[in-house]
Amino acid sequence: MTMEAIATRARVGKPTLYRWWPSKGAVFLDVVLDRIVEPAVQLPDTGDIARDLRTWIRGFADLFTDPHARQLLVGLLGAAQTDAELATMLREKIQRPLQASNRERITAAQSAGQLPAMDPVLLEELLISPPWYRLLVSGEPVTPAYADALVDAVLGAHGGSSR
């Protein structure tokens, strides 16, 4: 998708787009923030961390099977590879806030004895990296069954309760 296509679809001129967003990637980032981050990628807190982790990874499964969301995410991450400003915005607006929120949830579960004592960022990365690898590299689907198996494998391998 080009800025011209976005402008046409929005029924505005390209200069209007560029007044608000410096690049196509910046447009993608705003859409991701508005439509994807809040509803889909927050780690829930029901008090049952294994269930919450499954729900969280299943949220990515749902997201990655939606063709529009998939195209948007791949486009955003692709653009961030060559646009340092966009990459910085992506980290500051999405990755770091989510990681901080997830770290709080994981640390609370560790304190409650629901998760093993280990680096919470590493635990988050062990869980979230495989779905992103499937989206961006292998093209394999991220299914609910895969999400459940992933959580069970990571928690089981690190002495956590998976059920």
List the helices and strands and how they pair.
Blueprint: H1 3-10, H2 14-20, H3 24-40, H4 49-65, H5 67-80, H6 84-111, H7 120-138, H8 144-157
Helix pairs in contact: 3-5, 3-6, 4-7, 4-8, 6-7, 7-8
Pfam families: TetR_C_11, TetR_N
InterPro entries: Homeodomain-like_sf, HTH-type_TetR-like_transc_reg, HTH_TetR, Tet_transcr_reg_TetR-rel_C_sf, TetR_C
Organism: Streptantibioticus cattleyicolor (strain ATCC 35852 / DSM 46488 / JCM 4925 / NBRC 14057 / NRRL 8057)
Explain what you see.
The model has no long low-confidence stretch (mean pLDDT 84). The chain has 163 residues and is an all-alpha fold. The protein has one domain: Tetracycline Repressor, domain 2. α3 packs across α5, α3 runs parallel beside α6 (84-111) and α6 packs across α7 (120-138). The protein has eight helices and no strands. The longest helix has 28 residues, at 84-111. It has helices at 3-10, 14-20, 24-40, 49-65, 67-80, 84-111, 120-138, 144-157. Helix content is 76%, strand content 0%. This is Putative transcriptional regulator. Residues 2-21 bind DNA. One of its GO terms (molecular function) is DNA-binding transcription factor activity.
CATH architecture: Orthogonal Bundle
Q: How many domains is the backbone divided into?
A: 1
The main β sheet shows up as: none
Q: In total, how many beta strands?
A: 0
Strand content: under 5%
Can you tell me the CATH topology? Tetracycline Repressor, domain 2
The mean pLDDT is 84
Shape: elongated
- Helical fraction equals over 70%
Helix/strand/pairing class, anyone?
Answer: mainly alpha
Residue stretches low in confidence (pLDDT < 50, at least 5 long) are none
Separation, N- and C-terminal Cα atoms:
43 Å
Tell me the series of helices and strands, N- to C-terminal: HHHHHHHH
- By CATH's scheme, which homologous superfamily applies? Tetracycline Repressor, domain 2
Number of helical elements:
8
Radius of gyration: 18 Å
CATH top-level class? Mainly Alpha
Domain HTH tetR-type: 1-39
Protein name: Putative transcriptional regulator
Keywords: DNA-binding, Plasmid, Transcription, Transcription regulation
GO molecular function: DNA-binding transcription factor activity; transcription cis-regulatory region binding
